[in-house]
Write a structure and sequence with these properties.
Number of helices: 26
Number of domains: 5
Oligomer: single chain
CATH architecture of the largest domain: 3-Layer(aba) Sandwich
Helix content: 25-40%
Strand content: 15-25%
Bound molecules: adenosine-5'-diphosphate, zinc ion
Strand order of the largest sheet: 14-15-13-16-17-12-18
CATH class of the largest domain: Alpha Beta
Length: 802
């Protein structure tokens, strides 16, 4: 078995296979699948993942592995298989799939250090190598004659840790820790030896009798109100010892988190959790759809299910949409499971993410709470996987590998034989249909735990406002209600449903709209910088003062950006203080949190924002929620636009009246009769589901068919169309009669960054060879892709149809 089969980090479809390398003697004992290596590849050296070892190869003249990057595998055998499956399922490269599973730090080659974790290493040779230091460069070890197996063992035993030197501004923090050197009964004996007047010393020993843990020196001294000398004395008596420990950079301040206890479940919660417990108990795989209105206590169900899993000695993964992964949310998990929780959040720095990942990898935690990619957490004994707000489209990754976290969760659930819970107040049609068919088990929570009614929703017809002479973006009713809340010192959340809307510039004389010269899209006006910007390619130009078309000076900006709403609102209700939350105000790290905190501490009456305010927020004092433009999403060229509108309105309505004060919701719209708006206003998911399913059936959309989207892009329009046409022809030749191929059609945004985009949509019910077929077709274009700057992307589960 001295040959390693390696997936190399060369992102090209012609290289998408394993390559064989000979293993140098010094690595033979330690090299295992799931480790990263450096291998010669052509004239270069590249990184690669060892996926297996073998004793024979079909090739002669194999090259040797140049270097081994990990001494413990960073991908488990389950993840190695999962990556292979993922690549095949999404038509991506194997290497791309593996990289998607790992934190950024492990995707590149970094310098590394060896860090001692104990005072004395078992291996004399290693002890000698460290020569009294805590930390040495890895290269020192490589230059020595010590066998790799010895270092590997020291790492496995926790005596040494590898540390990657990530270039970042944060420095590692070390603190002094204290721990007892004696077991409890010996401590009790020692107490007798200490004179009675040495009160502090007695207290300190008593502390370690009661708490058999390590503790931070400063915390201990503070808690016992003791001077440092007390510690010194007990150290001299060989009762306790002090040592340095690296503290993980913790971006969430945990110190203020109060521990919480399991609540006694409502009858509905009990009914929902029982079959989940049973499945955990049996060690079986099952997918549960937990359909619960906002405030029905879904999170409590998750927490208690996880509790059961931990008691069984297993681990839990919880996925939460990025924007709902707020400190409030994290608190609920840390409150229940304390330091057993790792959080993977995209706002963490690369170093912080790696720290959290390492805690999972080393089995220091039992629960991971994170956004999409946390589904790849390297646990080996998973007992439950939970996806909260399962309808969120952020669970779908929009670049390679284009996977949906739900599919990955189910795949892992099958492997680990554990339940997968999909939770939502507004499940996707796909999931709900599967629950109806019995593929998933349905559990319903239709009451709020506090027995409060859902807030009343009033629909305002903005056409009538216009007829009545009100040309502002606020209806008279909304204005009145905002003023009323402000006078009562209550708070208001205003949602600007901006997707598909922006502030564009138009000439009032000739109607000319300023568009990006590289993309087929109107430029967006940014007030702060007085610039026009393209949101697709970041092109920008100064705001013109005269129309480039007719030279009129009546050029104005239109639309309803958040800045504009804020401005109008301040004019209309001067006494209002507003916190605006959108991509612009939340770009800086921590800004999101800060704004929410300002609102929570009542530093403003109104929280105004885009989609990002619709989720997970829970403010006691909010009694009015206003949706300014409910229908702005409805007219997008996307068959899911009604579903998304229904989901958003339901979510945002759930923000009001969650506590003692009753809540109210105002929805402004130009299409008050649209079923998604009407049915959301009465919280009627069932009717919405029936209605929308009927439409999907008529027009043949998911869940009645599967979709695949192929997008071709090139600088030359004719090339783009012709290539798409050729793909369509090739597909038509091989698919069954029941399958529909639509295209070539221009993508809704036909030109981005000077590249034309055409697409072809495949609608199919059963096409077992489809992936194979597309792969074959793509291969025919390999040359053109490489030489002629052609781009072809395939999405086997498209959500973004733009
Ligand atoms: P969801 O996740 O469905 O929106 P939450 O889990 O946030 O609902 O629950 C809403 C509120 O009800 C929270 O404040 C939570 O603490 C409380 N809650 C949940 N379950 C119970 C229970 N069994 N008894 C009392 N309060 C509960
Ligand atoms: Zn003009
Ligand atoms: Zn552009």
């Amino acid at each position: 078995m001295n040959i390693a089969n390696v997936i190399v980090d060369v992102p090209a479809s012609s290289i998408n296979q394993t390559f064989d390398y000979k293993i140098p003697d010094k690595y033979v004992d330690i090299l295992a699948s799931g480790m990263r290596v450096i291998v010669p590849f052509g004239p270069r050296k590249v990184m690669g993942y060892v996926v297996s070892r073998s004793s024979e190869s079909d090739f002669t003249k194999l090259k040797y592995i140049a270097d081994v990057l990990d001494l413990t595998p960073i991908l488990t055998s389950e993840l190695l298989h999962l990556g292979k499956w993922l690549a095949e399922e999404t038509l991506s490269l194997y290497v791309t799939a593996y990289q998607a599973m790992l934190p950024q730090v492990l995707k590149a080659q970094y310098e590394k250090d060896l860090v001692k974790q104990t005072d004395e290493l078992s291996s004399n040779e290693l002890e000698f190598l460290f020569a009294g230091m805590d930390r040495i460069p890895y290269s020192l070890f490589e230059g020595s004659t010590i066998p790799y197996a010895q270092l590997q063992k020291a790492i496995q035993d926790g005596e040494i840790m590898i540390h990657y030197l990530v270039k970042s501004k944060e420095t590692k923090k070390k603190v002094t820790m204290v721990r007892s050197l004696l077991p409890v009964h010996q401590l009790e004996e020692k107490i007798l030896d200490i004179p009675n007047n040495a009160k502090r010393q007695l207290e300190l020993i008593q502390f370690f009798i009661e708490h058999q843990t390590k503790v931070e020196l400063n915390t201990l001294l503070q808690q016992l109100q003791a001077p440092r000398s007390t510690i010194t004395k007990l150290v001299e008596k060989n009762i306790i010892e002090t040592y340095k420990e690296e503290v993980y950079r913790n971006p969430f301040d945990d110190t203020s988190i109060e521990p919480t206890e399991a609540l006694s479940l409502t009858e509905q919660q009990q009914q929902a959790i029982t079959p989940i417990y049973d499945t955990v108990e049996k060690g079986a795989h099952e997918v549960f759809l937990l359909h619960g209105v906002t405030g029905s206590g879904k999170t409590e169900v998750y927490l208690q299910a996880i509790q059961g899993v931990i008691e069984k000695g297993q681990e839990a993964i919880v996925l939460v949409p990025e924007i709902a992964l707020t400190p409030q949310m994290v608190k609920r998990f840390k409150g229940r499971f304390g330091s057993n929780v790792a959080v993977l959040h995209s706002a963490l720095s690369a170093g912080e993410k790696y720290d959290e990942w390492r805690r999972i990898h080393r089995k220091e935690v039992k629960v991971v709470v994170g956004a999409r990619s946390a589904v790849f957490a390297p646990f080996e004994n998973i007992g439950i996987i939970i996806i909260d707000e399962e309808h969120e489209t952020s669970y779908k990754q929009e670049d390679q590998p284009r996977y949906h976290a739900r599919d990955v969760a189910i795949k892992r659930g099958q492997h680990h034989q554990c339940p997968v819970i999909l939770g939502s107040a507004t499940p996707t049609l796909e999931s709900y249909a599967r629950a109806q068919k019995g593929v998933y088990k349905l559990a319903t929570l239709d009451k709020r735990t506090n027995e409060k009614e859902m807030p009343n929703v009033e629909i305002i017809d903005m056409r009538k406002e216009l007829h009545a002479g009100n040309r502002s973006m606020f209806s008279r009713e909304l204005k009145e209600k905002i003023e009323e809340r402000i006078s009562r010192d209550e708070q208001i959340v205003l949602l600007l449903n901006r997707r598909g809307y922006s502030t564009f510039v138009m000439c009032r004389d000739c109607g000319h709209v300023n568009e990006c010269p590289h993309c087929d899209i109107a430029l967006t006006y940014h007030k702060n910088s007085n610039q026009l910007k393209c949101h697709y390619c970041s092109y920008e130009e100064p705001m013109p003062t005269i129309c480039p078309e007719c030279s009129s000076n009546l050029i104005r900006y239109f639309g309803t950006g958040t800045e504009r709403v804020e401005e109008a609102l301040t004019k209309l209700i001067p006494q209002a203080s507003i916190i605006r939350m959108d991509v612009d105000t939340t770009r800086r790290k921590g800004a999101h949190e800060k704004l929410l905190n300002q609102f929570a501490t009542k530093q403003a009456n109104i929280l105004l924002g885009t989609q990002m305010i619709a989720k997970g927020l829970d403010f006691e004092n909010v009694t009015l929620v206003g949706v300014l433009t409910a229908d702005s999403m409805l007219h997008l060229p996307d068959f899911r636009s009604s579903e998304k509108t229904f989901q958003l309105l339901t979510q945002v309505s759930g923000r009001a009246g969650r506590h003692d004060l009753p809540g109210e919701v105002i929805v402004q719209t130009y299409t008050p009769d649209h079923y998604s708006i009407e049915l959301a206003s009465v919280y009627d998911f069932q009717s919405f589901y029936q209605k929308e399913m009927a439409i999907r059936k008529t027009f043949q959309y998911p869940p009645f068919v599967f979709l695949a989207l192929i997008t071709v892009s090139h600088k030359n329009q004719v090339t783009t169309v012709q290539t798409t046409q050729r793909i369509v022809q090739l597909l038509l030749k091989h698919v069954s009669n029941e399958t529909t191929i639509l295209g070539p059609t221009p993508s809704p945004i036909t030109r981005v960054k000077d590249r034309y985009r055409y697409q072809c949509m495949i609608k199919y019910k059963k096409e077992p060879q489809l992936r194979m077929l597309i792969k074959k077709i793509l291969r025919q274009f390999d040359d053109e892709v490489r030489k002629n700057d052609l781009m072809i992307t395939v999405d086997m589960q498209p959500y973004q149809l733009m």
